Amino acid sequence: MSGRTIFVPCDAAALSVGADAVAAAITGEAARRQVDIRVVRNGTRGLLWLEPLVEVETAQGRVAYGPVAAEDVPGLFEGGFLDGADHALGHGPTEEIPYFARQVRLTFARCGVIDPLSIDDFKAHGGFAGLAKALAMEPAEIIAQVTESGLRGRGGAGFPTGIKWQTVAGAEGEQKYVCCNADEGDSGTFTDRMIMEGDPMIVIEGMIIAGIATGATQGLIYLRSEYPHAIATMKRAIDLAADAGYLGEDVAGSGRAFSLEVRVGAGSYICGEETAMLESLEGRRGVIRAKPPLPALEGLFAKPTVVNNVLSLAAVPFILDQGGKAYAAHGMPFTGHPALPTGRQHRARRPHRIALRDHPWRLDRGVRRRHHFRPPGAGGPGGRASRRLSAPRVVRPKARLRGFRRGPAPGGGGQGRALIPAPSPIPSGARSSPSRHEAYGRWKLPTP
Questions:
Q1: CA distance 36 to 176
Q2: Which string of b and e fits 363-373 if b means at least 16 CB within 10 Å?
Q3: I need a labelling partner for 68 at 20 to 30 A (CA). Which of 59, 93, 129, 206 fits?
Q4: How far apart are CA 381 and CA 84, in angstroms?
């Protein structure tokens, strides 16, 4: 049992339900039993209803236990959890939990897996591979890969990232900037926070690549003060990246310069809009600017500026590492992202063009008995709710984002548009459970 590695999340959601106390209890109990362990504070996996989710590294892989309270720790040791033994709080191998087995994670691949403040851990799981390839390419080649990927802004506007980068690259200016808008203002949304607290280096890597592609040498991450843990994690990650030679006057020995810093705002919903954020960064009240000029031409301090959301920038390293076609293959034409975010208590990642019924039943663990499936509002509070569903329907993101007014809106800030076709046939093995609210309907699917 000696030398076991135990993972306890340090994500804000886990901390709010006692993760620090659990980590301290595990360390104390191991010392009392004279057992050699190593506790790693990772990010969240996204199963917030199981937080604090404790994982143990075994010969068969990581085994999950949760939700764990400090008073449960002695019982876990007695039950042999260091060897991955069965327990009332056990869920078996983490990757085999149905919630994970049905997901495809690209941007979130390292969240909950690595120590967010370990450069070595980040690199061991593919970190900085995209940057290494970008440094061997010409700026135009980098932009071509981003354009080919179909990546769009994930903050709400859905503007093609490649076109924005091309505009900044072609703009004249002695100084150019890359601004990451991390002002996550929608109620109940936390994807940006999850990445920044669980895998901050991927944001840094994406911003460095953006700087190399556009000629920008200064980056700023705009965070709201309500995210103290994300602020602390990002600041520490920037210091570690600089110490490792990935930030500064000579990025990874390439002779190219890029520096990065965190700027904290007071927390204003309107600062999620790019020009309002720029106003705040310049020390003024966050108010939307009139356009033109566009920020790509006259942005921060009237200089050419790339403004992208956390998710957009975090997707860039995969694109440069695996290629634009590989990223595009996970999505639908014009959607600009391979995943449809779901869930009130967690964040699930699935490719586009999936059956809508998979969301509540196969990702969200179904609907409680005597409850109805209300019209979904895909994309968070800023998304658009679909009409009431009386049968399983397939969400097919529309080929173009304009001119369509019905259906759910997948994607950040409601930027997506989706077409809901006629009801698909009842899945094999499904049983209808009629109710007086026939418009909602209830469908019971067999366990896969």
A1: 50
A2: bbebbeeeeeb
A3: 59
A4: 39
